[in-house]
Specification:
Blueprint lengths: L1 E6 L9 E10 L2 E6 L8 E2 L1 E4 L6 H13 L1 E16 L11 E14 L12 E4 L1 H8 L4 H13 L10 E4 L5 H19 L3 H11 L2 H10 L2 E5 L4 E8 L2 E7 L8 H15 L4 E6 L4 H6 L3 E7 L9 E8 L4
Length: about 325
Amino acid sequence: MLHYSFYSEIVPDESLVSGVIVVPFFEFKCILVDVKTRSPRRYEFVAGRSEPCETAEETARREVTEEAGARVGSLKRIGYLLVHNDDKPIHPFPFPDSYLVVFAAQCKKIDDSLRHKHESAGIILCSLEDTLKHLERQPDWNIAIFNLAKQSLGFYKDDMRMKIRPMAVDDVPVVTKLVAECHKFLAEQQKFSSLQLECLLKERCSEKYIKKLYKEFPHYIAETEDSIAGVIEIEGNDIGGLWVLPKYHRQGVGKKLFLKAEELVVENGYNILTVHTTGYAIPFYEAMGMHIVKREQCNNGPLKGLALTFLEKPLKRK
C-alpha cells in the first residue's frame, strides 16, 4: 500500500526524488488530465517519473507536454510529496520512501498534436472553482498543492466569503466531526501509530468532550457560505486548539482565526500569546510571528512519547 504526505518546507536528498507532480495553468484556468489507466477514470494533475540524468524541472516540462500537449512558460517548485511504500517495490524507486517534486506551471501554449495519446485520453480546462470540485473525492493533498500552486502563481486571493463568529452549542456536532477529520489528517502527516490515533479520536473527538471545552473556554468558528471551515479554542492567553479542514488549508482560514485569538488575548489583558504543537503546524505559527521557546516530550495522554514544541508571541496592547 502507498501512503502520501505533502511537505512545503522539507527538502529531501535529491537521490530520493523519483518523479514529479505538476499543477499546470493556462490563461487562469487549471489543466486537468484524463488518465485513462485509472479506475474509475478521473481528471487529475500531470505526473510522471524522471528519466535517467533528467532534472526535476526537465521532467516537469516534458510530462506537461506529453500528457497535456502544453508548453510550459514559468515553472515554480512548491514542495514535495513523500511516497511511502509498505509493499514490495513495483518501480525502480528508492524504497520504502521516495519523493515527487511538486511544481506549479504557467503554460504559454496548448497544442493537442504535442500530446502523446498513450499518456492520456485528453484534457479539460477548469475554472479554479470547478477544479476543486474535481479534487473533492481525491486525497486531501491534491487540494493542498492546488491551493499552494494558485498562490505561487498569483491566482490566490484572500477573498473567500468567510466570517469569524463565536461558536454556538448547536455547532458542537459539526465541530466534533471537523476536529476528528483534522486529527486523522495530522496522524497521517506525522505518522502517528494506530493506537495513538485511536486514543486521540476516543478522548478528544467526542461530542461530550467538545461540548465540555465549549462551556469552559471561548471558541470561534470560521464559517464560509455553506460550511464550517475551522475552529479555534482560546484558554486564557493560550491557543488550546486551532483546527482547519484540510480542503481549506492555505486559504487564509487559519490566519483569520489566529488574528481573532490575538485580538481576544489582548482584550483580556495579556501581552503574550502561547501555543504548543506536535510539529506539523510549526511553519504556520512561525509565519504568524511566533517563535520557539522550548521543546519537551509529552509524558501522558494519547500523545505520550511525542515531542511537543512550545511557541509564543509578544503582543502590544492597543
